[in-house]
Specification:
Elements: H1 9-18, E1 22-26, E2 31-35, E3 38-41, H2 42-51
Antiparallel strand pairs: 1-2, 2-3
Length: 52
Amino acid sequence: MPPLKPVKRRDLIYYLKQLGFDGPYSGKRHQFMLKDNLRVTDHYFFRLHLQC
């Protein structure tokens, strides 16, 4: 498995759409994407980026 590394937000949105997510939609403070009952916010995207 290749090592995890930071990706551009635009690329991450593209990959999530390829996996069947809808959005991004505007929320109160952050944008989010939906798939069935799963909601992923751009705040979470930022946290993933900081951990890498």
